[in-house]
């Protein structure tokens, strides 16, 4: 098990990585799934042998409230159907923490429940916010779970210029689920999970 990293350099590196992903040209992405709530694209990841996914959709709410529902905190467990538990293990400052969370089985349990330990950081970006994270090799793996690994991932949320009550939410996700899994099952699950994330989030914000 690694010791906890110093938060400031890790946060800075993570932000820079996400901003770089955000500047990748449209031509490098391939559409993986499209729903009324979101479009999901993918491209080969630079971090591991799977894909970097990009998801984007317009959400009717202000930036701060949307990000409060996404980042570690009391809201997330209430509405995210994939997340089954979440504990804040360490808090460095208000916008920076280490959390452990578990996810439900997917695809008729072909993908068994997973556990993740992530460093999470939320910061300003343009007129909105960026909340981002990366997995750490920290803490004991609990029985009955496979420990997954999130390579740099995050959500940009910025208000729409012509409609301030709406925000453009763009996510970058690259999750290494680990364990013995067919890659096609992982790819199917990731695209669907990201599209469902938007519809579940929109329902939660309306309540």
TrEMBL record:
Tree of life domain: Eukaryota
One GO cellular component term noted in the UniProt record for this chain: cytosol
GO biological process: cholesterol import; cholesterol transport involved in cholesterol storage; intracellular cholesterol transport
GO molecular function: cholesterol binding; cholesterol transfer activity
Residue span, START domain: 10-207
Protein name listed in UniProt: STAR4 protein
